[in-house]
Amino acid sequence: MLLGMPGLFGRTNWSLDSLTLPWGNLESIYEHVRLHGSDPLPDESLIRDKNEFGWIPGAWDGVLGHGWAGSDPPTRAFDIVSALHSILRRADDRTMGAFYRSIVEKPILPSLDLLIEELKESLPSLDRGRLLELGRYLTLKSGHREAVKSGLTLIGLVGAEQDLENLIIIGKNEEFTLFAAVALAHVSSEPEQEVWKLAKSVRNWGRIQTVERLKGTKDPKIHAWLLREGFRNGVMDEYLACICARTGRLHEALKQRSVDDALLDGAADMIHALITGGPAEGIDDYAEAVDACEAYVENLLARRQLGLRHFLAVAKLRGFLSQSDGWDKRDALGWTELRRDGLLTKCNHVFSWKTWREQTLQALSATDEQVFYDGDTAANYLSIDTWAVHFGRVKTAPLTSSSWYRLMQQTDDSRIDGVLEFTKAVLPLEQIETGPADGIGLGQNFRPHQALDWVLQDLRRFPGRGWRLIKAGVRSPVVRNRNMAINALAVWPRESWPPDAAALVLKAHELEPNDSTKRRLLNLLEGKPLS
Strand, coil or helix: what is 59? Predict the structure, then answer.
């Protein structure tokens, strides 16, 4: 713990108004958000200078907050608090510069828990008025996002109801939603309502971060929203499906006498997400999952005018129930063999409805990407060949089409030559093979490389075919392109290698800048396993 500074600060000559702005000429982020919403923030160019590619608002903190990255050493939080004590004691350009540098040098989130803990322990000895003034100063005026987040943190500690409007304004930009939500929960007399209001105004990481803070709410209106809309987000519904199903008591809602379409649609998507699983809690974490699934299917049997999302949910549930393992642990949660067999029989009945094939074929002609994706997924379940559909989409937009994967997935020996000829004709191979580098190949400039990647990853199934594309992949600046080409060559029998293949691989090994890929190239030359 850091020792707090004496609390009897003199009020004279302490002001932030006359200080040199530590953010220089950058526009106020708060004012920018207030006027423009989610436009690129004033410090966007500085952030992109540090990263090869950009993150959607809130994504970096979302990744950090969900355990996908490490934390800062404790000394950083201590250094920040020490610098904060200095500026609260004496506000001048030196103390402000030191404090400002400490909070903007890198993301604040990894240090946030320890920072808040230290500040709370120091609060009795701090001048709360100065602390709040500093928090508002950073939040409303700063041009660096990490400074705004730090300001929101300070407001969350000592703010008042009059800060609510500003917190909502800045929180609607998802780069700051998490920090605004935490502050709202501390300064509002109705924190749940304010966080819910904010949750309804955001869609991606902000939605995830606010709904996570509504977990366990007893408000029936929030329950209803969680089950129909709250779990939906632009990142992955899997992040929130279990939280919303459990908090909203999905199993009980589906047993009501009247179940509206929005609730049934929400149930379909939540059950699908729960079974899919992923980075958050899944179906095995929802104690009443079997009750919810049974009630959901019973509702389907009672009506027949249903959209394709319900076919996808039933198909997912059907596959889950057909698994051979995992049931011993689930038995204690009600997934008995008798209930599973009964539910599977009902799922098989719904799965067999003729309407699904009709809806699938209609969806495959849709221009809306989500509708098409649902139709394509349904077609896969129904064993409908969509190769021609995907080839048509690829031909229309070869550098941006999302159909490359499914096209190659359904390409066989009788179809591969046509795909390869088309690929060689439309991709600028000479522009791709500029030589090896250590790039990850994201962004618009790498769209040809991304399209090539989809083809390369399937060429292992076609020994000796697509050599021109393999050559381009080996010479690409994108590491993944090179590795996909290596993967294909490793599977091809040596007798299927063209005469210049060994020389190409040898040269590639000499030039390769990536240590892992260089090792794989050497193993390829020596006929050893790649990894």
Answer: helix
Rounded Cα distance between 134 and 158, Å, is 11
What digits encode the pLDDT tens for the residues 382-426?
999 999 999 999 999 999 999 999 999 999 999 999 999 999 999
d(CA 264, CA 222): 17
Coil, strand, or helix at residue 308?
Answer: helix
Mean pLDDT within 33-48: 89
Residue 530 and residue 492 in contact, taking contact as beta carbons nearer than 8 Å = no
Mean pLDDT of 516-526: 96
**SS in 3 state form for 243-280?**
HHHHHCCHHHHCCCCCCCHHHHHHHHHHHHHHHHCCCC
Question: Bridge partners of 439?
Answer: 478
CA 489/CA 463 separation, integer angstroms = 8
Q: What is the pLDDT of residues 340-374, one digit of tens each?
A: 999 999 999 999 999 999 999 999 999 999 999 99
- Return d(Cα 40, Cα 517) in angstroms, integer: 36
Residues 6+ apart with CB under 8 A from 503: none
What tokens does 446 get?
A: 């790498």
* Mean pLDDT calculated for residue range 270-275: 98
Between CA 161 and CA 126 the distance in angstroms is 21
Do residues 447 and 400 lie in contact, with contact meaning Cβ atoms separated by under 8 Å? yes
Type of residue at 308: L
Q: Can you tell me the distance from the alpha carbon of 289 to that of 285, in angstroms, rounded to the nearest whole number?
A: 8
Q: How far apart, in whole angstroms, are the C-alpha atoms of residue 202 and residue 195?
A: 11
301 burial level (CB within 10 Å; 0-12, 13-18, 19+): exposed
Q: Which residue has the tokens 């049934």?
A: 264
Task: Give the number of other CB atoms < 10 A from CB of residue 431.
Answer: 11
Residue 350 is encoded by which pair of tokens?
């719904």
* Residue (of 144, 166, 146) closest to 156 by Cα position: 166
Contact present, 58 and 66 (Cβ < 8 Å): no
Going by C-alpha positions, the residue among 182, 183, 172 that lies closest to residue 207 is 172
Tokens standing for residue 442: 């994201």
CA nearest to 201, candidates 219, 185, 217, 225: 225
pLDDT at 12 > cutoff 80:
no
Neighbours of 490 (CB within 10 A): 15
Neighbours of 84 (CB within 10 A): 26
Indicate the pTM of the whole model: 0.90
> How many other C-beta atoms are found inside a 10 Å radius of the C-beta of residue 436?
24
Give the Cα separation of 502 and 211 in Å (integer): 55
CB 167 within 8 A of CB 152: yes
Is the distance from CB of 214 to CB of 222 less than 8 angstroms? yes
Share of the chain above pLDDT 90, in %: 89
Specify the pLDDT at position 46. Answer: 87
CA-closest candidate to residue 167, choices 371, 176, 158? 176
- As a whole number of angstroms, the distance between CA 50 and CA 52 comes to 7
